[in-house]
Design brief:
Structural class: mainly alpha
Number of domains: 1
Distance between the termini: 22 Å
Strand content: under 5%
Order of helices and strands: HHHHHHH
Shape: elongated
Largest sheet: none
Low-confidence stretches: none
Radius of gyration: 19 Å
Length: 187
C-alpha cells in the first residue's frame, strides 16, 4: 500500500510538472492563450496558477493519503447492500436509497467522500495532466497527425475535457465496485 501511494504521488507530481512545462513553452511570456479556468475566469497570472496548483494538488494528495492510511472500510452496516450503489449510499448517508443525493447534497459521512475523492481525483489529475501535456507538445512542435486530429474535431479542448469527465466517472464507478467486492469478501 505504501508503494502504491508513493508511486501515485510521484505520478501526480510528475504529470503536473509535465503539464506546467508544456504550458510554459507556449504561454510563459504571454498567457493570453491559456485555457486554465483560473486564468480565463479570474485572471490569475503565473504566480497565482503555481500557488493554486500547489494548494489543489496538496489537498488531493492529502485526501489520497487518507484513502490509503486512514480510511476504514465498513464492516457492519445497518442493512446488507445488494449492490455497489447501495453500499456507497449506506457509507455516505446511512441509508440504502439516497445515493442520488451525492449530486446535490454533502453526505453525512464526509470522511468517506473525502477518501474516495482523494483516490479518484489522483487518477483524474494524472490523466488530465498527461492529456494536456500531449496537447501542448503536439501543438508546440506542430505535429501533422495532431493537426489532422484538430481539423477533424475542431476544438480538441472539448475532447480533452470529455476524456477527463469520462475518466472521473469510470474511476469513481470502478472504485465503488471494488469497495463493494471488498465488503462482500469481508462479510
Amino acid at each position: 500500500m505504501k508503494l502504491k501511494f508513493a508511486l501515485f504521488t510521484f505520478l501526480i507530481l510528475f504529470a503536473r510538472g509535465c503539464d506546467f512545462y508544456s504550458t510554459s513553452l507556449w504561454f510563459f511570456d504571454n498567457p493570453k492563450g491559456e485555457t486554465n479556468p483560473l486564468y480565463r475566469l479570474f485572471g490569475i497570472g503565473w504566480t497565482g496558477l503555481i500557488i493554486a496548483n500547489i494548494i489543489i494538488v496538496g489537498l488531493v494528495i492529502f485526501a489520497f493519503y487518507n484513502f490509503y492510511f486512514r480510511y476504514k472500510r465498513p464492516t457492519n452496516l445497518n442493512k446488507e447492500p445488494k449492490d455497489y450503489i447501495e453500499l456507497a449510499s449506506l457509507q455516505y448517508f446511512n441509508s440504502p436509497d439516497k445515493f442520488y443525493q451525492i449530486f446535490y447534497k454533502i453526505p453525512k459521512n464526509k470522511t468517506v467522500l473525502f477518501a474516495h475523492f482523494g483516490y479518484v481525483l489522483t487518477i483524474v489529475f494524472i490523466i488530465a495532466s498527461f492529456l494536456a501535456t500531449i496537447h501542448n507538445l503536439c501543438q508546440f512542435y506542430n505535429l501533422n497527425f495532431y493537426n489532422t486530429f484538430r481539423d477533424i474535431v475542431g476544438r480538441p479542448l472539448f475532447v480533452i475535457y470529455g476524456l477527463i469527465a469520462l475518466t472521473f466517472i469510470l474511476t469513481y464507478r470502478n472504485l465503488l465496485i471494488s469497495e463493494y467486492k471488498r465488503y462482500k469478501n469481508i462479510s
